[in-house]
Design goal:
There is one protein chain. The protein is mostly helical. The protein has helices at residues 3-14, 20-32, 36-39, 52-71, 75-95, 98-104, 122-125, 139-142, 146-152, 161-164, 174-194, 199-206. The longest helix is centred in the middle third of the chain and has 21 residues, at 75-95. The protein is globular. The relative contact order is 0.16.
Length: 213
């Protein structure tokens, strides 16, 4: 997803549960994953190149980092880890065929709204039919330049990231499904963390007024 869309999704999902200070650090950490250093050699940040196990392990690693950072009172490190986690979780819906698979499982002729999509269908999360876009460098990199994209796309395979991604509304109506799924998955990740902390630990993580008392 584009950086501005990652930021929008994160704020929409978490704006009511974190302080503005915490939220901005989370958002900054999230979109930093799309810097050049996070794009090259880090398929696990984005669920690219069918790196499903590596990406799932990366998410779990960030969960552990959040917990250990909060135990040490290093709350900004916990927020940064949560930002990295949410980026990867959000990209799952934009970089894989999960949306296509979910829609194909619906009753014939039925087209549910994006709000009805289940972002964590266990049969699809681990489906052997699940795929993510492959990055065919160096040509793939040229598609990141808007003026060149339409000239390069015809030469890339249909399983490329360029053809498969749902990174923005320009990619068509399925983008809204990916967007809504990413919002709900982001909030799910917060709820998962919430269940694992005491009230004091959660207050610290949320940067709530109580944590400053």
């Amino acid at each position: 997803m584009l950086k501005r869309i990652h930021a929008e999704i994160t704020r929409r999902a978490l704006g009511k549960v974190f302080s503005p200070r915490a939220l901005e650090i989370i958002v900054a950490s999230n979109i930093k994953q799309d810097a050049l250093s996070g794009q090259l050699g880090h398929d696990e940040y984005h669920f690219d190149n069918n790196a499903f196990e590596k990406s799932k392990a990366y998410i779990e690693e960030q969960r552990i980092l959040i917990s250990s950072a909060l135990e040490r009172g290093q709350v900004e490190s916990a927020w940064a880890a949560f930002g990295r986690l949410t980026h990867t979780a959000q990209d799952f819906y934009a970089h894989t065929n999960y949306i296509d698979l979910w829609l194909s499982c619906q009753e014939s002729g039925m087209i549910p709204s994006p709000a009805e999509l289940d972002p964590l269908d266990p049969d699809l999360i681990d489906s052997p039919a699940l795929r993510s876009g492959k990055l065919y460098y160096p040509f793939e990199a040229l598609t990141f330049i808007p003026a060149l994209r339409k000239f390069v796309m015809p030469f890339l395979p249909r399983d490329s990231h360029t053809w498969m991604n749902l990174d923005s509304a320009e990619r068509g109506p399925l983008f809204e499904y990916a967007y809504q799924a990413a919002v709900r998955r982001t909030r799910y990740e917060f709820d998962l963390i919430e269940r694992g902390f005491s009230s004091n630990g959660l207050a610290l993580f949320q940067d709530s007024l109580e944590s400053h008392a």
